[in-house]
Each structure stands twice: as C-alpha cells, then as structure tokens.
Amino acid sequence: NITSFMRCLLTIETSLETALLCISRNGELLKSSSNYSQKDHASWLQPALEKLLEDAGISFSDLNAIAVVAGPGSYTGLRVGMASAKGLCYALKVPLILLDNLYVLAASYLHHTDKGIICPMIDARRMEVFTAVYDSSKNTLMAPAALVLEPDSFDKWINMEPLFFIGNGAAKYKVLLKSANAFFPEWQPGAIDFVRIAQEMYDKGEFAELAYAEPFYVKAFYDPAKAKS
To answer: According to the model, what pLDDT value does residue 113 have?
Structure first.
C-alpha cells in the first residue's frame, strides 16, 4: 500500500492534438498514456485511464489530487478534460489543480534553458493564436490573450533581450516576424513536464474551487486591424 507521505496525482491533458494521461507519485512519473487522434479524445479517455491505473498498480482511492489542463486550447477538448477531472474530484473527494497550457509551455522550456523572454503560442486558426509572455523567472509580462498576429505584436519585448517563440502556433509567426532577436526553437512539453508543474502546484496548495472551476477559454480575439478601423 501507498504510505501517507506519498502523494499520487493524475494529470489530464485533452486540450490539443495529442491527449495525455499521467500517473505520478511525489513528482515522479510512474506511467503515461497518449492519444494522437484529437477527435477521439472523449472516447479514449476513460478506458485509457483505467488501464493506466492498472499498469501503474494504483487504484482510484490512492489518488490525492487531479490536475487538468484548463486551457487555452480546443473548446471540445477542454470540456472533455474538465468534466472528467471534476467528476473524479467529486467522487474521490480530492482537490482539483488547474494547469495553464501557456504557462506549462513556458515553464517547461525554462526548466531546460533559463534565459531570454519566452512567448508560448497555441495555434487557433488563420493568423490567430493564444499567447502570453514570460520572463526567465517565469513572471508574467503579458497575461494570456487571444491575438491576431502582426509583425509588430511583440515590439515591446523584442528589443529587450532574446525572445523565444515556442508551441504549435509559433511556426506561422516565423514567416511574419523578421528579427535577429527572435528565435523559434522546436519545443513541446512532455509528460514529465506536466507532472513536475502539477506537483509544484500541489505542494503549494494551489487548488481550484471545484464548484466554480471552468475551462480557461481566454477571450475573443483581438484584431489590431479591426481595432484601427
């Protein structure tokens, strides 16, 4: 049996193309499972979870908290993950941890390289992204927002120090932005990154109010061209 000082967390990510389930103990990844067909995330989730727990030798009653990526991302995917996480929290009487996709991108990248300003981007459509800006200490310089990309969207920071654009929305900005201070490294967080950040939040007691927890959709897109007209 799992002793009292061991903390088991389930992490759920269904907001993007690849869904991910992780079982961890005290921040150490025990088992993970992925699904690569976004339209199947809902039907995949429950059977995958039951198999994952079995493979990890963990029962539902061993779980101490549920972490879920709350957004931004696919509306349908976010609702699937949130509904599952809240249902489990209600049933098991354990706390809920809400993970911010953009923060996870930035913090996971900074865990491996502690330099520069980080601008995570999640693809929306056309030239639209969900994005934010963080400094090398993971402080928020620009709060998460929905943005229609323009060449000058990040002029406020681009001349301060190197600016690293990461995530599945960064590629389309690379063709738009021409700056010697802009870099576009290939980066997506892995299971261990989600686990580490979920454990950090658990250790700090950063839990959501279960009854009021909702997906983090951000807001309507800000289009600079429309704003000027």
So the answer is: 82
Q: List the structure tokens of 32.
A: 């993970």
Q: How many CB atoms lie within 10 A of CB 13?
A: 25
* Beta-bridge mates of residue 7: none
pLDDT, tens only, 50-74 = 999 999 999 999 999 999 999 999 9
- Pairing between β-strand 96-100 and β-strand 117-123 as defined by DSSP bridges: unpaired
Query: What gap in Å lies between CA 176 and CA 150, rounded to an integer?
Result: 7
Give the HSE-up count for residue 33: Cα atoms under 13 Å, Cβ half-sphere: 18
Q: Which residues contact 133 (CB under 8 A, 6 or more apart)?
A: 117, 118, 119, 140, 141, 142, 154, 157
221, pLDDT greater than 70: no
Positive or negative, the CA dihedral 14, 19, 23, 25 is negative
Alpha-helical (H) ranges within 62-113 are 75-92, 101-112
Model confidence pLDDT, tens digit, residues 83-108: 999 999 999 999 999 999 999 999 99
Please tell me what DSSP assigns to residue 212.
G
SS3 125: coil
* Nearest alpha carbon to residue 211 among 60, 99, 89, 100: 89
Q: First CA to last CA across the chain, in angstroms?
A: 65
Q: Check whether 220 has a pLDDT greater than 80.
A: no
Estimate to the nearest angstrom the gap between the alpha carbon of 22 and the chain centroid. 13
